[in-house]
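Before a colleague's protein record goes any further, I have to sign it off. What it holds is a sequence and that sequence's fold in C-alpha cell form. My question to you is simply how this chain folds and whether the C-alpha cells agree. Thanks in advance; the entry in question is below:
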Amino acid sequence: MKKVYVIGIGAGDPSDLTLRAIEAMRAVDVFFFMDKDGAGKENLIAFRQEVLTRAVPEASYRSVHATSPERPKDGRDYEKGIDWWRGERRRIFREMLSELGPEETGGFLIIGDPALYDGTTQILHELAAEGFEIDFEVVTGITSLQTLAARHRIPLNRIGEEITVTTARLLAETEPEKISNTLVMLDGRATFLHFKETDLYIYWGAYLGMEEEILIAGPLKEKADEIAETIETSRARQGWIMDAYLLRRP
C-alpha cells in the first residue's frame, strides 16, 4: 500500500519547522505540489523550496507538480462551485499519486497545519473510500493563528471564554454582540470594517513568519482604516496578501 505524509511546514518561517516534520520529509521519495496560478505564487514556491533545502539538503527526492484549480468566489452558486473544485482536486490528486511507486513514500507540504483550513486530508480520505489504496500520516505544523498570537505576545484563550475560528464570508454574517474571541483567516477584504463602530479590539497580521511580515493592533475604531489601507497598499506592492486577525472584547 502506498504511504503518504501530509506535513505541516508552518506559516512562513522555515525556522518553525518541527523535528517531526523534518523526520517525515527525509523519509519522502516523491513530493507532490499543487501550484497556484497568479501573483504570490513565487513567494510560496520559494518558501517551500527553502524548507526542503533546510530539511533535506541532499535533495534525495523527486517532485510532481500540478496546477490547482481556482477556488470559486463567494456568490449565489458558491456551494456548487466548491463541490466542483473539490472534485477537480480529487481527480488531480489521484493522477499525481499514481506517479508513486509501490515501495515509495509520498509527501505533501502544507503551509501552516494540515488540520486547519486545508483540504488535503479530506481528499485522501475520499480517495481511500473510493477504493484507492493509500495509507497516510498527518504531521502537525505551526499555524498562522499561533504565529499571530506569538508575534503579538498574547494568549488565544481567556478564562471562561470560547474561541471561534471562522472565515471572512461567515464573519460578515455575524452579529457584533456574538463576537468575543474570533479568529479570522485569509480575509484580504477587510471584513472587520463591518464592525468598525464597536468596542472590539483587533490583533492583525499579514505575511506572518515571512520577511514581509506586518503587525497592527489596537482598538478597532482607531485601527480599522489603517489596516484596510495597509491591505490595499501591500497587495499592490506584493501582488498578493495572506492575513489573519483576532477580534476580541476589551
